[in-house]
Write a structure and sequence with these properties.
Elements lengths: L2 H18 L5 E3 L3 E3 L3 E2 L3 E9 L1 E9 L1 H12 L8 H24 L4 E3 L3 E4 L4 E2 L11 E8 L2 E11 L2
Antiparallel strand pairs: 1-9, 2-9, 3-8, 4-5, 4-6, 4-7, 5-10, 9-10
Length: about 160
């Protein structure tokens, strides 16, 4: 996985979170790689990528973090993970990926996004792409905010 693909997602996630959370503190934790099926924390917004590259970006967080972010973005305290909260987290994923892909297009990479898909539940797992030796490792970038931790999970490879 080339760093050129990853940096725009990391930088954009940081910038967008600071902006939508009203200038909240956002710090980056230590990056790590994950190659096997991995459990998600409770709420995961998934965006697929296709074109010169294939893969996905996953924004993973707990229900509590998702509610805190949705509340901050809507300017009101949301007490349950309802349709408004779900739409807000999907829109956050959309904002981040659209801006990151715009940066990648400016660097000459061409690919399209799928609309965000939101998964919410207990004990869910996201399996590695491909299921064979060609599958790609996911780079996990933890972002710690005043609302909680979000893990930006990027798995991208060049199309063969």
């Amino acid at each position: 996985m080339r760093v050129e693909y990853i940096n725009p997602f990391v930088e954009t996630s940081y910038q967008i979170l600071k902006e939508v959370l009203g200038g909240a503190t956002v710090t980056r934790g230590d990056l790590y790689l994950k190659s096997t099926a991995m459990p998600v924390m409770g709420v995961a917004a998934f965006v697929g990528l296709a074109g010169d590259v294939e893969g996905r970006v996953l924004f993973d967080m707990t229900f509590e973090t998702a509610l805190n972010i949705a509340s901050a973005m809507n300017g009101e305290k949301l007490s349950e993970f309802d349709d408004l909260a779900k739409a807000t987290i999907s829109e956050l994923a959309n904002l981040i990926t659209a801006q990151a892909v715009t940066k990648l297009h400016e660097l000459g990479f061409k690919f399209d996004l799928t609309p965000p898909a939101l998964f919410a539940g207990e004990k869910m797992e996201i399996a590695a792409m491909g299921g064979n030796s060609n599958s790609v490792e996911a780079l996990i970038v933890p972002l710690i905010t005043d609302c909680g931790k979000i893990e930006v999970n990027v798995a991208i490879r060049e199309r063969v």
